[in-house]
Design brief:
single chain; about 80 residues; three-stranded antiparallel sheet
Length: about 80
């Protein structure tokens, strides 16, 4: 019996702010899933089952999910509302 030992960096754990690009949805960012009440209002973060849940949303919707601080300078200039206009 042979044992194969591999040395190297461990797999990077997924985190909020990670990005992915898909053919169907384009570039997306990973955000916390929001919990809603019966009327649809956001009441906090969804921790169903004792674990934090996540969603993939388009970069342009990051502000509504509380993840606008993950934007790059170019994205901030593109998606932030203009002040004084």
């Amino acid at each position: 019996m042979r044992l194969h030992v591999r040395y190297g960096p461990a797999r990077k754990k997924p985190r909020v702010g990670d990005r992915r690009t898909t053919k169907k949805h384009g570039e997306q960012i990973r955000v916390f899933r929001m919990a809603r009440d019966m009327r649809g209002n956001i009441i906090g973060y969804d921790c169903t089952g004792g674990r934090q849940l996540y969603d993939w949303v388009p970069i342009s919707e990051a502000r509504t999910h509380g993840a606008a601080h993950h934007w790059t300078a170019e994205e901030r200039a593109k998606y932030e509302p203009r002040e004084g206009a």
